[in-house]
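User: I'm curious whether this sequence folds into something compact or stays loose and floppy. Could you predict its structure so I can see for myself?
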Amino acid sequence: MANILVVGKDLPESESLLKSFELQGHKIFATANSDISIDNDNIFTFSWNKASSISAKTLLIQAEAKLVQLDRVLIIFDSPSYAKKFESDKIEDCTQAIENMISGYMYFCHTLLGRLAQKTKKVSVGFYLRSAPSKADIISAKAITQAPCTNNVSVAQAAFKAMAENFCASLSELPEVSVFLVTSEPGNDLYASDRDTGAWFLNYFDALEKLKNKPSGKQALTWIKAGGKMPGGFGLFK
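Assistant: Here's the prediction. I'll summarize afterward.
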């Protein structure tokens, strides 16, 4: 069984996703938006202050202390979830939006990269973008009927995509780290079910870790659709 760190989609929003991991016997350390008590010994939580670089370091230190060995890391940006928290585009909301949807991820990914560069045991890292249409998407693609998210969320979503790609490139250079990028859009079969998405991620991690050779940096930078084929199941990873 694996020890999994889940960052970005905080409890209680991530409960269904985490339960899909726990039901398979894995141990999980997850970020939470408050001090939440979980009634089992397999899920540990951390109330992450995304505006603080020190909090990002503490998050990783505590995750390693509780899990002992860090096997898998899943970094999530859930645009529909953020859209519920940032429902308006007011200038006074910008600082909080930047701290919660951009700065925190940057602090954590820099911390993670530095830590994994010191490790000699294999670790798998996944970036997951659950996207939502922007106002620009609605105008340019008439087929989209879903309401757009605010500009604050749309800008942060684009920032996460760029951040994920560039940290993916950096992480792929580490010999003991396998990394991948996953996206899910409205209409995707797994978009509405965190539990099914969690089960797919477990299968993906398993398949990735069974590969004789980890994906190259170029292969790792290819965005995968959630629910897609497993590594080794198509030409990209052969």
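Summary: Residues 169 and 218 are 8 Å apart (CA to CA). Strands lie at 3-11, 27-32, 43-47, 72-78, 123-130, 177-184, 223-225.
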